[in-house]
Amino acid sequence: MEDGEVNDVVHPQVRAHINSLVSAxxxxxxxxxxxxxxxxxxxxxxxxxxxxxxxYDEKTNRMDVARCLAEANIVSTDLLHILAxxxxxxxxxxxxxxxxxxxxxxxxxxxWPIEKDRETMTINHHRHIPVLQLAQLGYxxxxxxxxxxxxxxxxxxxxxxxxxxxIGERTARDQGIIKLILYFLRNIAMITPPPGVKxxxxxxxxxxxxxxxxxxxxxxxxTLLTIxxxxxxxxRTEDVIVMEIIFHLVKRVxxxxxxxxxxxxxxxxxxxxxxxxxxEAAMLRSHGxxxxxxxxxxxxxxxxxxxxxxxxxxxxxxxxxxxxxRERKMDSTKTFKPPRRARREDMEPKDLGxxxxxxxxxxxxxxSFVSDFLDSGFNPLFxxxxxxxxxxxxxxxxxxxxxxxxxxxxxxxxxxxxxxxKKESSKAQSGExxxxxxxxxxxxxxxxxxxxxxxxxxxxxxxxxxxxxxAMRCFTQxxxxxxxxxxxxxxxxxxxADNILSRLFYEESTHDxxxxxxxxxxxxxxxxxxxxxxxxHTFLRILEAYSKQNVDLQVRSRKRARRKKKAAKxxxxxxxxxxxxxxxxxxxxxxxxxxxxxxxxFDFKRFAARFTPQGVVDTFVTxxxxxxxxxxxxxxxxxxxxYRVAFKQEMSVMLFRLDIIHLFYxxxxxxxxxxxxxxxxxxxEELVRxxxxxxxxxxxxxxxxxxxILFSKINSTAYYLEYGFEKQTVSSNPRxxxxxxxxxxxxxxxxxxxxxxxxxxxxxxDHLDWIKQQLADAERERRAWENIxxxxxxxxxxxxxxxxxxxxxKTTPAYTTVRPDNDARRKAMFKNxxxxxxxxxxxxxxxxxxxxxxxxxxxxxxxxIDADTLKETxxxxxxxxxxxxxxxxxxxxEHQLRRKSAAPRKRAAYDDDxxxxxxxxxxxxxxxxxxxxxxxxxxxxxxxxxTPPPKKRRRRRRDGSQEPEPLTxxxxxxxxRARRKKxxxxxxxxxxxxxxxxSDDETDExxxxxxxxxxxxxxxxxxxxxxxxxGLPPKPGGVERSEWEMLIGVDEEDDQPLADIERRKKSKRKxxxxxxxxxxxxxxxxxxEVSDEEFEDIVSDSSSASSPSxxxxxxxxRGRTQLKQPNMSRxxxxxxxSDWERDGGRDGNAMDVDPIQLSHxxxxxxxxxxTVSGGGSGAGEDEDYNDKPVAAAARSRLRARAGFIIDSxxxx
Length: 1212
Fold this sequence. Notes:
Blueprint: H1 2-9, H2 12-25, E1 26-28, E2 36-38, H3 42-60, H4 64-72, H5 74-85, H6 94-111, H7 123-144, H8 151-164, H9 172-190, H10 208-217, H11 220-229, H12 239-250, H13 262-288, E3 301-305, E4 311-315, H14 323-333, H15 360-376, H16 378-390, H17 400-428, H18 446-462, H19 465-486, H20 491-506, H21 508-519, H22 526-549, E5 554-557, H23 560-572, H24 578-587, H25 589-595, E6 598-601, H26 604-608, H27 614-624, H28 632-648, H29 658-669, H30 681-701, H31 705-708, H32 715-723, E7 740-742, H33 748-761, H34 765-795, H35 798-806, E8 816-818, H36 823-831, H37 833-841, E9 845-846, E10 859-861, H38 867-882, E11 897-899, H39 915-921, H40 936-945, H41 969-993, H42 1005-1025, H43 1041-1048, H44 1058-1067, H45 1069-1082, H46 1095-1105, H47 1134-1143, E12 1199-1201, E13 1204-1206, H48 1208-1211
Antiparallel strand pairs: 1-2, 3-4, 5-6, 7-11, 8-10, 9-10, 12-13
Helix pairs in contact: 2-3, 2-4, 3-6, 4-7, 5-6, 6-9, 8-9, 9-12, 10-15, 11-15, 12-17, 16-17, 17-19, 18-19, 19-20, 19-22, 21-22, 22-27, 22-28, 27-28, 28-30, 29-30, 33-37, 33-38, 34-38
């Protein structure tokens, strides 16, 4: 029957192979006093088993091999015995060391944590996972409790040779061995009983206390301290593995209990026991009222007569106790039961588990390790991990960030507990100074705060509640640590703490994050609820104290300018196209740069008001519902919040809701009230009494509260209920609409036509009708005035008319007032930019242009505009209205307009933004030119194009004043799925890299031959690509072959193979590099280096330069050839000659030039690659080539400017 079941689970051939390999591994020997005897091929058997796991289980996503090995009990019966054979006295035994390494290579995948992924799990996984989880518990029990040999210490011995090597000398195999052993320790620390599964053995053998005792006894703590303290110097990629080991050692352990004396610990335990017994007694009392009588098998049903005279049927014997019980029974039937939703994923942190209790011995051992770690390993380890997280290193997984923040919070709390213990002991004993905060300085830096804020924002946006919970815990502990620094009494610590607090509270985005997190709680679990309420409480308390001490506290806001701009756009009704918006922004970059970030004075009362909305109140109410399970600090946290809302913020109406009042009443007078012996009972009783008293008084003052007490309150409703009137909002001085201009020069009739076309496109014909009416009225007035003026001039005598003109008689009519017909028109005259443009084109202007414009400003038509001009303007408007203008490419009239750029910002005398320097640098050929470095491609672009184009900036796309649409749940789920897939691929790569290849310590001559053959073929293909024959550059056209070979340094009679030359070049590569470095340091102007890609271009230039009209251009090849040219006459001019003499002189035998080597033979048959410096060496080091070095002819140095070669032909 068992065989049949086994065949259903694992394929019989797989089981047969695995069992045969296990049996061939070895066994108990009868001849050797019961000792374990290895098989003949034990090492190969272990490697075969590893291959089975790697290529069968992992590749096919099955667990059959692991199941077979678990049933064969290979760890307890074979692997541990094999490891015990390698005693500490036999460290030099290479064979046993390899056997031990192979054993750990097999145990690492067997103990690797099992993850349940619903997307990839199959029926096979559901069959094997429960069995393998229990098998891993057996592995852990056998490993940490094995008496014959310290298995964990043996694992460290395997990695010691690799760890002892300097990091620069370690091979990939050495790195793999170190990671393998660390993963083994991680797996042992991580194995815990799965939830809901009862372990059959003794749980004390696999408990946290047993693990800590094994780590301490086998010196694993010392190994972790050594690696952590040298992180970044001798170890780099092992940071997250060490962090995981420490995380699984200290998680859910109360750090406050590690550094207390035994007397204090016994008092704490007795208090906890008394509190637990009191809670149990209260629970029994509440259940005792409803306990069944001895006649419980008989049903009970009674009728209850209500106040209205109606009868209600109530069943159950608890209805017979008292009237209150009957009312509760009736109320329980009225409970609203919402429709059931799909079961949500458990939001509690599964990797933390329940709180852990450790024994006294383990407490002392863990406390000693934590103290040593804080003293030596905290700063290097966590600073290195933070850098790895920031650069998203390949060995970092998604859960490492949450573990990082959890450990930072845990160790900060442990450090504060240690400081308190030292402070108390120093007061009682010798008054010794408390250690400084330098031991934890790596997590109190600006880089850490930036990483923390980024994690808060990203986790909140991605709804990664586990990461957000860890980040909130870390932020809270950082605030508490800084506050303790501030209160330490040390001037230096106080100054540092003041600086840290000012940086933490300076960014308003941090304030927004804290308020939004606590306001948007829904159903993320109690851990998240506890973390967010603790962060809000701590942040408010410390910020309030700090703002009182620093009255002039400033905060930086980044959103106010954008918010104002959107509000102005919405009020003006502007919906311009995206191109216009982008152009407007680019025209006003400096102004926008000033407005996007503004500082303002901090007002704590205004900030605290952000914690009074109903969402925040509901979060703390949900937290308070667990009052029977909360400790004193948590009860105090909720009490302080409700007190702040009701009395400090004067918003007690936010608490006047029926369910909140019912909760407060039950906490004091209900069937399950708070424990009266609790220190917080009196404070809660007084708070509830004052809140209920205010509620009753407010019900008498505001009868509307009888209705509103059933619902949540928005801010406006709460303000009205609190003060009896609506909140008065005072609007600031509004700004008029933006001033527009035309993109190109147009005639007046075209401008009016475009302005009319914009209003027509926006369906604002009522504005056109109103303007035409105003122009017609003004035209009639002017026409009448002109007629009267003409009549009076005709009736006036000639002499009187001349005298009146001489006395300055007024002939210009008075201005005409433009009157809006309604409030909407008046608002449009102030905000509508297109209407204002048309009004200005028609000649309208403000009466008082020197004063700031307001919605009530008066517009006029000046008297200097005659009636004919007004009539012409009116006709142009009518013409454009019935025949709107059209444009090419489907553009609209508004596309012909743009916002008029603002005046440039007036810069202070001390304001140096680098513009003058940039103008000086861009001043053509007269400015300073800098070498562009080794990138020849960039240098060519600069030579051809002159000044580089301005750098384009990517701007966010905006659609008017509309906010971007939030992502839907489907899009967020798709992103999570893609992120999860990427994380799984990275995890698979890391797990695969944990193996050590057995061939790493062996050499393969066949592989070397194949490698060098491929390299030779690759080089030949490369030479063919660039047209090289025998490794030499091709001859350009128009140049004789003899001249070309003389130019590149090859003799006609030279028939020596190129391989010999290349071999000599390899032998002299090192001294040539040294001499070249020396010459580069001596020169002020470095010569140009060209790559293989530009070889042909420069060679062609040199061939043209070899003509009699221009000097020959020397060539210098990077990594291939370095040539020297004989001195030749120049015909360019005095400047060139001075440069020529300064760079090397006219004497071709000068020896003070740079030492340049040639990799080809010279015309005399000797190698021209010898060093030409006075103390040069390197040619004699080659045993196959002992000719004396010959000094090559000195060559001219190229004239270079800004990285460009300046030739005489260029100047001509």
